[in-house]
Amino acid sequence: MKKLIYISGIVSANLMLLGSIFKVQHWPGANILLTLSVFMFCFMFLPFALLSSYKNSSPRKYKSLYIVTYIVFAVVFVGALFKVMHWSGSQYFLIIGVPLPFVLFLPVYLIQTRKEKNYSIVNFMGIMFGMAFVAVFSVLLALNVSWNIMKNYENQFNYNQNLVSNIYTEKANDDNNKNVMQKSKELCAFIESLKNQMLKITENKPENILNVEVNQMESTIPSIVLYNDDKKGNLDELKNKISVFKQSVIASDNASDELKDLSKLLFETETSVISERNGGEIITWENKEFIDFKLIIVLDALTRLESNVKFVENQLISMK
Question: How many CB atoms lie within 10 A of CB 59?
Fold first, then answer.
């Protein structure tokens, strides 16, 4: 039996070492080496070694400790193999294997050796160190992701991304969609220019707002950009570009009736509403969207408008 123990121990150790090197280097055959080494260790070397040690002990005692030792080692090593190989059920092995040395082996070990006169604290410290190492090693396995898995995921992701990109490009080149995308690009660029102008004025503060009170400056800056000295230059151009984009979506043969109705609702700039709170006062689109023309509200409204434009554009492109 000793010869079998020595041979199986040496072979399993060398196979495990080679399998680990092959696995780290991503060489073929690593999985076979690791599987053979773990099964040889757990089902040949370990049971025969523990059985031989038990039979050679005089007197024969700590039988339950030998059994528990085998169970703990087998569960931990087989669980590690399942995790490395990404086999189903590996998570259950980890859940059981990580606490098993502490909740099963340690109590049995302490109970069996509590009356031992020659008991050494050094042995206990060594056992605790080994248990901690096994626990940390098992937890680290849960964080490990195989290079092959990551590579397969990357390839699949790139394939899906290229597929979607090709479909999107093909549909974007459709004549009906080109016009919508062009109007969307022009509208979004104009919105970005308005926001940049407001932020630039906020940073530089030109002479015409230096004497404005702080509480009024927030509404003064959007008014300067949108109204252009009460001429409504940028505001009228914004409403015009919104209307042109809306009409391009409505005129598109690829747009569904639902998308056309949504565009009419989202980009209606001519309709005014009557406010019951203010005694039936008529509120225009700009007053409804840019409440009190506060800077933060105007920027938020412009950003929301830009998001709606991109949403409608993407919905149109995604349609068959």
Answer: 4
